[in-house]
Every structure is written in C-alpha cells, then in structure tokens.
Design brief:
The chain contains 12 helices and 10 strands. The chain has about 350 residues and is α/β, with parallel strands linked by helices. It has an 8-stranded parallel barrel, surrounded by 4 helices. Helix 2 packs across helix 3 and helix 8 packs antiparallel against helix 11. The radius of gyration is 19 Å and the shape is globular.
Length: about 350
C-alpha cells in the first residue's frame, strides 16, 4: 500500500490538499472499481451525533481536515442521525472540490422506530437515493450500498428487489458502483453468488480487529471476484477501549471480559489499547481501507498518527502479548444473530419502540 503516492492520484487537488500529509498517507485500489482509496477512510456516522452530542461547525472542520490530510473515501448513510450525518456532511462538502473524494452512502435503514426501521423495497430504495443526494448536495455518489442486509425479511428481497433497484440508480448516473454491507460474513457469499446485479464492494465491521480477525479468511473469495473490501470499526464498537463498550453492545460476556482484561493489561503497561487496535487493523494484509468515525479534531489527529507512526518496541510487545493471551482463545468468536434476533422479537411486539 505504501508504494502509491497520493499526490499522483485523481483525487489530489493542487491548492486544496496538504501535499506533505498526502505524501504520508497510504493508498490501495478498491477491487475492480479503479478507485484508489486511502488506507484510513472517514466514517461520517459521528456527524449524526450517534455517539455523543456534536458541534456541527467542528464536524465541518473535521471533514475538511480529513480530506486535506489525504483521506479520500467517505462513508455515510441516512440511518446515521436519521438524516443528520448526510446533512452535516453536505454542508462540509460545499467548500470541497468534488474531485477530492469518493463518497458512499446506503439505502434500506432509516428510522429509530423498530417498526419503520428497515425498508428494502424498490420504491423506497429509489426514493432514498434522491433524498440522500439532496441532503449531500451532490448529483451522484460513487458507491450506493444496501445497509445491513441481514435485517431484510429474507436475502431473497435484497437479491430480487433492492439490488435491481440499485442497478437502475447506477444506470441513471446517480451512482457509479453497487455495494452490500452487513455483519455476518457468510451473507456476502450468499448474495454475491445469486445476485443478478454486479456487486462491486462489500463493507463489514468488527471482523478485522484484534478480538475477531475472521475477515482474513474470506479475502481470497472477494479478491478473486474483483470485489473491493471496506473494513470498519477497528476498536470493535468500543470493546477495544479503556472506556469499554456501550451498554447496548451485542457481544457476549466472554468477549467483553477478554477485551476488558486486555485493556487492563495495556493500562498496566502504560499502553493505549485503542492505539494498538488501530495499528493492528491498519496493518492487516489485503484490506484496502478501514473506516473510522469521529467528529473530533483531536481524535482525527490521533487516527491519522496511527497511519504515519510506528509502535514503540514496548507497544509491539504488549500488542503481541494481548493477542496471544486474551484474544487467541476467543478463536474469532462473533455475536452474529444477536441483534437480528432482538430486532425480530421487538417487531412482533406492537408496543416496542426503539432498538438500542
């Protein structure tokens, strides 16, 4: 990845970019799309205040700093802040040359009310794309993706209705490529194998991390088909942090315990487990880009340093130890099915409201 000079890429804009920062960023080609993307990409979910209350002015500045520093891939969705993330992102992008970035958004996941949360129909999908473009202030996105397809009534709906609708979006010029997203890795093969529509990219999360690196087992399948892989959540939605995961985190207790013990060990050694987690993920082979979301300048700077800076010898020793001692026994254990089961149960309850 280090062999590509970002200043030679189509996304480099003289006078906009920080040439020195771009020269330090690492890049790789995203499958057969021809898009050469930054190793660290920008997840815009935080702009929707999904993790904490955020300041829109700071969010705009964070987007500007991220792109000027060589990040050239942005991922968002209507679901993040229920339109807010796309709206704030649109404000930020008004002052940025369209040439300077690739942008991906999603369809199918919308409202916090569990009974209105998902809609995989063709009609809603087509309308969603137009709504997203309006919020973003754009005439097209680079990639349009099915959001969390495991929550569909069945994968047949995704294959026979959602994806053909996205092909219409692509044919109309409103998107250049089509992607699918979700947590269960097995669903990607099921959909790719049966889809009447060409799948260009996949996005998955929490499978390229210290506690679960199972994405590596599927990379050859995607690479052989020219499908670009977008990884997300190197700290496993807060598991690999000193603060610990949020209360709603779907991981089983043994996963949470292993991550907590690893964090405690890191603290005893004066190491930041989130920094180790970022370095672990960014150095995994075969993964062109990893999404990290923030609306904080300080966190963005920290994330960028994970690309530029090497770990110290003590940090490397600590990383190796926690992987062997705490994470290897987990054997890439997942929480697959936990969230979907909870969603289906809540849908059956007329009084149920918001899925946490």
């Amino acid at each position: 990845m280090a062999g590509i000079d970002g200043r030679l890429l189509p996304t480099y804009v003289e006078g906009f970019h920080d040439a020195e920062a771009v020269a330090k960023m690492k890049y790789a080609v995203l499958g057969n799309t021809g898009l050469t993307v930054s190793q660290l990409s920008f997840g815009a979910s935080a702009l929707g205040s999904v993790f904490r209350e955020t300041d829109d002015a700071e969010s705009v500045q964070v987007v500007h700093k991220a792109l000027k520093s060589g990040i050239n891939y942005i991922d968002t969705a209507p679901w993040y802040g229920h339109g807010k993330a796309e709206t704030v992102l649109g404000k930020a992008l008004k002052d940025i040359p369209r040439q300077a970035y690739y942008l991906a958004t999603k369809v199918c996941r919308y409202e916090p009310d569990v009974h209105k949360m998902f809609d995989f129909s063709a009609e809603r999908t087509l309308r969603s794309v137009d709504e997203s473009l309006a919020r973003l202030g754009l005439s097209y996105v680079d990639i349009i993706q099915v959001h969390d397809m495991e929550f569909a009534p069945s994968l047949d709906v995704v294959i026979n209705e959602t994806l053909p609708a996205l092909q219409k979006v692509k044919d109309s010029g409103k998107a250049k490529f089509i992607g699918i997203t979700g947590y269960p890795l097995g669903n990607f093969r099921k959909v790719i194998g049966r889809s009447p529509v060409k799948i260009d990219t996949i996005l998955t999360y929490c499978h390229g991390s210290m506690n679960d690196n199972s994405l590596q087992d599927d990379l050859q399948y995607f690479h052989e088909r020219g499908i670009g892989v977008v990884n997300a959540s190197p700290i496993s939605m807060g598991l690999l942090s000193h603060r610990g995961p949020p209360a709603w985190h779907p991981a089983t207790q043994d996963i949470k315990d292993a991550c907590r013990q690893a964090a405690e060990y890191c603290k005893s050694k004066g190491a930041d487990i989130s920094r180790l987690a970022m370095h672990f993920t960014l150095n995994q082979p075969g993964v062109p880009t990893t999404l990290v979301s923030t609306a904080s300048q300080a966190n963005l700077d920290r994330n960028l340093r994970a690309v530029y800076e090497e770990l110290t010898s003590d940090e490397k020793e600590t990383l190796d130890y926690i992987c062997e001692r705490f994470f290897k026994p987990l054997n890439n254990k997942t929480w697959e099915g936990v969230e979907v089961e909870r969603y289906r149960k809540m849908k059956q309850d007329p009084g149920a409201a918001v899925l946490g």
